[in-house]
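User: Second chain of the day. Same drill as before.
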Amino acid sequence: MSKMSEKTAVNVLGESDGLHQRVLASFPLCDVTEDDLTQNPQFCKLLVILAKHMDRTGLTASLKAELEKAEQNLQSQRRQWLRIEVLHRSLQDMVQDHHVRKTQPPDQSMLHETMEKCLLVAECVRQLDPSDTTNQEPPLVLGLTPQSVMELTPAEKDVERMRRALPKHLEKHLKEKCLTLLSYYQPEWESESEGLKTVKLSHLSGLLEKEKTRAESLRGTCQENRLLLQRQTQLYLSELIKCIQLLQTLILDHRLKIQTDLDGKKLDYLEGKCQLVLQKLKAEMVEVQLDTYTPDSISAHRKIREKLESELKACRADKQMAELKLSSFEMLGKEFKALADEYCRLRRLPASEDRK
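Assistant: Same format as last time:
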């Protein structure tokens, strides 16, 4: 019964419209194609079950909650560090502006000098005693200690005066920075009044947040499009390979069928070409003979040929008669050969005596 129900569930999962697309959308980082899900319905069923307990990145619900909590804690720590870092850098910028301008009222000059000394003393103390951030032992630099450096702090009344006046100057400095950022973000607003700039400055964070959200949305859309493009590219390549294999099969079958006809036609063509070449050679030979020999030389050569052929015929007849006589002599045996040799010797004797 369980097997039947499981088979029915698999069939339902495999036949439901758009199921494979939903599974692929639930696991965009998984390198699985629709053909894989079609050929493995049990694996498709497993992915459908896992999709209820996992998100698109592959994290479980509990792990995702822990990750979100850790990210919130990290963001809180980051915001706290950013506040301190922005304040510190703003103070350093104010000191740099003081050194660049050099023409300021005495009270502001005293304020910036006191602030610069406090910053230097704090930085030196932090360098000499890093125990607040690390577990290292305090380094010994030129025999200095944090307490000896703290003695260089400006007078307490100057520090107190600096603390009372610093918020106003810091606010003014930050406002100038924000207006500069606003002019950079929207250059066409630079020519407007300061009041209107201040109003628009209050909405700048919202605009930047919208731009950030839009950028993240576009980034997510680009990621989805990239994954979709990769999947479509894989499908396109697989279909292209199938088409190429089918085309190769058709080419081979077609070539095997027409190869015999092509060979026959090629053979007939070569035979016809050979006959044409032979006829051309014969024509060339006849043309050469006609250009070389005149009618008189041809008749003379014919007569010479007839005479030579008649002499050759007579020589062949004499040769045949000599061969017949030689065969008749050979029939008489070795004794007749000895008598013939003696006869030849006696025939040569008178000739030799005549010479003497």
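Confidence is low (pLDDT under 50) at residues 1-16.

User: Great, on to the next one.
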